[in-house]
């Protein structure tokens, strides 16, 4: 029975992306990519009833804080910034123009009254492409009958509206032998890694790469890597805009590996609470406390030189 262990993260919006692989395949074989906006994730979360959120562990105060998260306030403040500052946050020229036009900012950056009614602002932000997109990709790096290595990468298009919490990468896997029977495959911690790259409004800190380790929950089934997504010190903002890494698993006995199914999940936060993560090898699932939305890529299985979907 798997233990639930704390990830010290905030309210988690989950994006699940699955890569099921076996020992054959060329480098970057079976690339799977998904993309989702931060608002789509948030909207699916708040579509839950208060009762459903309470059943998943939230109290009244936390539910109120979650439902009152104000994207409008965030983007109104950002619209006051200079084009140069917004570019440092990852916004394109087109996004900057739309953001400032939406909130009625003048060329000298003097704030005027918004042209958009409050109840319509989220739709306008969404249609204007202002919300941050999160893109996640998985692929088979290498494989043999004794080990499998799966690569992953993730990237925010620009600074998310909420960046003050802890996000996480969580992984679960299961191997089978040449007879199709389950076998233990163990994570190789010396070859598995997660690197994150900082984007910072202070150019001296921009581009800094940090190496993160995977914390192993069960060597035969699961691990996770958590990180503080961003921070603010006075006018300086730094955040991890992108990350990449690899998970390598090895056989542990004399049986050769036929297939390894692997699910990699990214958890994003909106309010500060301390949920946990649980792994279930039986249902082959990753459970973040108070999770609300799943987005799966195609479940592809690699076997020798054949790629198939179940």
Descriptive overview:
The protein is of the alpha+beta class and 310 residues long. It has 2 domains: 5-59 and 132-308, no CATH class; 62-127, no CATH class. 18% of the residues lie in helices and 42% in strands. The protein contains 7 helices and 19 strands. Strands 3, 4, 5, 8, 9, 10, 13 and 14 form an 8-stranded antiparallel beta sheet that branches. Strands 2, 6, 7, 11, 12 and 15 form a 6-stranded antiparallel beta sheet that branches. The radius of gyration is 21 Å and the shape is globular. The model is unreliable at 1-11, 22-28, 288-300 and 302-310 (pLDDT under 50).
What are the defining features of this structure?
310 residues, alpha+beta, 2 domains, disordered C terminus, 18% helix, 6-stranded antiparallel β-sheet, 7 helices
Ordered list of secondary-structure elements with their pairings:
Elements: E1 5-6, E2 12-22, E3 29-37, H1 38-46, H2 50-55, H3 60-67, H4 71-79, H5 83-88, H6 93-102, H7 121-127, E4 133-143, E5 147-156, E6 166-177, E7 182-183, E8 185-187, E9 193-200, E10 209-212, E11 215-218, E12 222-228, E13 230-233, E14 236-251, E15 257-269, E16 276-280, E17 285-288, E18 301-303, E19 306-308
Antiparallel strand pairs: 1-16, 2-15, 3-4, 4-5, 5-14, 6-7, 6-12, 6-15, 8-14, 9-10, 9-14, 11-12, 13-14, 16-17, 18-19
> Whole-Å distance between the termini?
27 Å
Number of strands: 19
Shape: globular
Number of domains: 2
Task: Return the string of H and E elements.
Answer: EEEHHHHHHHEEEEEEEEEEEEEEEE
The low-pLDDT segments are: 1-11, 22-28, 288-300, 302-310
Helix residue percentage: 10-25%
The overall pLDDT average reads: 78
Estimated share of beta-strand residues: 35-45%
Rg from Cα: 21 Å
Count of DSSP H/I helices:
7
- Supply the helix-strand structural class: alpha+beta
Sheet with most strands: 8 strands, antiparallel
